Amino acid sequence: MTLPRKSSNSSSLSSNSKAKWLRQNALLTLTIGAVFIGVLVGCVGRLGEPSANTARFVGFPGELLMRMLKCVILPLISSSLIYWSCTT
Q1: Which chain regions cross the lipid bilayer (predicted)?
Q2: Domain presence at residue 76
């Protein structure tokens, strides 16, 4: 990550160099933006009284994520145990 040099006659970065930096670090920018949007959506969603259907709809991606993590973690643990038992 390289920051553009400041010009001698300007105390702030030009808009062109800011746009260039944002393009070079697009993944970072999008990730931070997604976090802020998620927090905003969560806060707005808490203001109303969500129904059971809404809770299931919002909880579904989280449930999928947890199941995928289990599918990854369990083979890693079992292969580590097998490797450990073979080396000792």
Answers
A1: 26-47, 67-86
A2: yes
User: What total number of domains does the chain contain?
Assistant: 1
Cα R_g (the chain), whole angstroms: 23
pLDDT at 29: 92
pLDDT tens digits for range 16-73: 888 898 889 999 999 999 999 999 988 888 888 888 888 888 889 999 999 999 999 9
Classify residue 55: in a domain, yes or no.
yes
Give a three-class secondary structure readout of the chain.
CCCCCCCCCCCCCCHHHHHHHHHHCHHHHHHHHHHHHHHHHHHHHHHCCCCHHHHHHHHHHHHHHHHHHHHHHHHHHHHHHHHHHHHC
The answer to whether residue 45 is domain-embedded is yes
pTM of the model: 0.51
